Structures
1.
Amino acid sequence: MVLAFNGKGFEWIPNAVLDLKEFRIEKDKVYLTYNTVEDIKNNYQFVMTKAIGRYDSVKKWRIEDIKLVTKEK
């Protein structure tokens, strides 16, 4: 299933995200990397930042980007 996120196409596989693998904080961003089911070659990484929303003016944690991170062997 291909979704549009922040103006770009992104392959999303439903029910693939498992547990939190790692997180890190860099400046004003939080990076959350989640394990995925075995038959998927990549993990999902969500980049979070505090920002005003598209439909509201409240500054809160929002997903800025979703990345695919190659699994370690």
Note: The beta strands are 2-5, 8-11, 17-26, 29-36, 42-52, 59-70.
2.
Amino acid sequence: MAIDFKVNTKVDGLDKFKKYIEYVSNIAKLSNDKKFQEFLQKKFLNTVNFISQIYLPDNAMKSEYIKNNQIRPMDNGFIIYNNTAIDTDSAGYGGKFSIALAFEYGTGIIGQNNPKVGAWQYNVKGHTDGWWYPSNEKDTNPIKFVTKDGLTLAWTKGFEGYEIYRYSKEEIEKNLPYWVKEYTGNNGGVGR
């Protein structure tokens, strides 16, 4: 005994379903489309720069930070990162201090009281009041002095994190479907 099924492919619902499957298939092909990847890289980087412009205070490090938002292509996509750092030898810390991580999570007493992530060390030296950091004439901090060696220092208690990458991620997730439509001409096709 055999069971036979008859399917009428002219049924409106099945035709719509077939078009949807073709649309999904075309969208999946975009992951291997180099031009689409480059298109997304530009959109993502522009978003991170825009969020940085909005959330970071106007100070000497803002333009340096934005300039250092970068993209590194990977086999299966790309990474957006920022490697802005300053030399901290003159302040007695040794090595480099990541401005990128500090801007994301915060620093010092103020950052510690408004934590953005559990694993970040907000107050490495255990300051109870604040500390001096290397500065320059572009720094808008009004509390400064120049050492006998000519080094400009400014006083801080730290700052709350600006969460640039968290806000960028939220903005990217919100806009990604629109960018796919923009790239595909709003019809689900691949490429331009």
Note: Helices lie at 12-29, 34-55, 60-67, 99-105, 108-113, 164-184.
3.
Amino acid sequence: MTIIIGARCKDGVALVADRRKIVHGYEVSSPGCKLGEIKGLVIGWLGINPLHEAVERGLMAKDVSVASCWDLADVVSEVAEKYEALKEGRPGFPVAGLVDGVAHLYQVLIGYAPGEISYECWGIADEYGAMGRLIEWTDMSVDLAWKAITVFIRIAAEANVAVGDGVDAAVVRDGDSIEIITDTGKVWDRAQTVVDKVLAVVREEMEQG
């Protein structure tokens, strides 16, 4: 199962995904990154692997060096038409890319035009990521934002066994910079410290009342 959170920030877009692939609480494969860059787009992979593979092949076959969210939407629709079973649940993809040097965050959903968004949480345990709507992400740099987002995924991991133990991040900076970050162990551990401190403050405050 997967949880991915994305935010448009002061200087770009941050996407963070949990790492493990889990079915019914059991790890079914080695930890793998659920964020990938294809032709200038960072895509968060949700849903089943055959869908990912079919979409990736279709996008790679596009006669463009830099793809747009509309190119991805066309491929997703073509794949859905070819494989009827993939339409179930209308799977979608979080997508980040650069347009004229400005980073944008989109949602590409089967059957709909791509939509630009400022913050969203996809996948399982998204109710924990929804707390991120309380934060003004446009006041925060992407380099700080992906670490802050990790805290919400850490909360989700504590509350739901299907959320993976660890994260990967992607930052798309205004200008022309895309980076996939996989060395996140220290930030993941630090996020647990933050969660513990918040819970301690909640208990202390409630005990006084």
Note: The chain is about 35% helix and 30% strand.
4.
Amino acid sequence: MLRVDELVDMNGFEVPVPPPGGRMIAYRVWKIRRTEERGELDVLQYLELVPASELRGMS
């Protein structure tokens, strides 16, 4: 399960800080919404693209 403000790669795996390379596509989880309808739980995770300049600044 992802957490808000966590950095993830394109496959949804956590990105270590500092990131291993400057040429990486990473996303930040900025919102998680849980909805339940007819006994089915849906978890929606909203992501934002993290700019390369911000990733370079983390190292």
Note: Residues 32 and 38 are 20 Å apart (CA to CA).
